[in-house]
Amino acid sequence: MTRDQVYGAMFGVAIGDALGVPAEFKSRTILRSKPIKGFIGYGSHNQPPGTFSDDTSLTFCLAASLCNGYNLYDIGNRFVDWYHKGYWTAGGNVFDIGMTTSNAIARLRKGTETSFAGDFDEDSNGNGSLMRILPLLFHIKEMPIEQRFEHVKAVSSITHGHIRSVLACFFYLECALALLQGQSKQSAYLQAGQLLRQIMNDQQIVQPEIDLFAPLTDGNIAATPIENIGSSGYVMNTLKASMHCFLTTDNYQDAVLKAVNLGDDADTTAAVAGGLAGLHYGHAAIPEKWRTDIRRAGDITDLCELMFVSFS
What we know:
Oligomer: single chain
Number of domains: 1
CATH superfamily: ADP-ribosylation/Crystallin J1
Number of helices: 17
Shape: globular
Distance between the termini: 7 Å
Mean pLDDT: 97
CATH architecture: Orthogonal Bundle
Largest sheet: none
Order of helices and strands: HHHHHHHHHHHHHHHHH
Helix content: 55-70%
Number of strands: 0
CATH class: Mainly Alpha
C-alpha cells in the first residue's frame, strides 16, 4: 500500500462524485449532446463547483472512524452526525440522501443497534452502501477471505442489509484489493469474480441472486454494450456501470467522465468508478485542477494522511 494509492482512492471517490453532482437525474441523451467535462456548479442540486454529496461524506465518515479502529457503533454515530450536524459535508448542509440510508440513520439516532439499523428487504437494494464502502479495503486488506466477507456484510448492513448489496460491496472491494496489490485491471476483475463465486458457494446463496451477478462473474462486463447497462441508483446497475467505465478506459479522467455522462445517478456511478480508478492510477494521475478545486481539499488531504499512517 502506497500513499499515492490511499490518496488516489479517496480523492478518486470525491472528485468523481463532485463531477456528477450537477448531472444527477439528467438523461443520457441530454448529456450526450452537452457532456460534462469538468467541475460545473448550480446544476441538479444548485451547489457550487467541486461540491461532493452524501456518497463522499459517508465514505469519509467510514474512513475517519476506521482510523480509530473497527467500531460499528462509532461508524453509525458518524453517519448520524453527518445528517444532523453537517459532519463531513462539503459546505455544511446535506442536500442528498437515499431513502434506505435515511431510514437507517433515523433508527440509529433512536438507539437501534447497527446490526438491525439497515433495511433487509429486496426492495432496499439501492447503491447507498456500495458508494461508501471503499475505505473498508484498508482495514480488511490482510484478513482471510471469510473475515473480509463478514466485515463487508456488517458495514454494508448498517444501512443496506440485503445479501445483494452485501455481495456487490464484496465484489467491489475484492477488485480493489487486487488493484491495491498491484494487479492489472483485468486480472483484478477476474479475481474478484472468482472470489465472489467462492463466497456465494460457501454462504449457500440462492440461485436467483447468483444469476444476477453472472454478467460480472461469468461474463466480461467491459464487452457489454453501454446501451445495455443502466445507471440508476439500483446497486447492480451502479456496480456494472462503474466497472464498465473503469475497465474500458485507460486513465482516471476518462473513467469518471464516462461514468458521469451516463446520467441518472451520475454522481454515485462516478464516485464508485472513481474510487477504483484513483486507486489504480494513483493520486498523481488525477488532474491537478480537480485535486485543487474539490471542496475541502485540505481536509481530504489530512484524512488521507491519517489513513496512510493508520493502515500502513
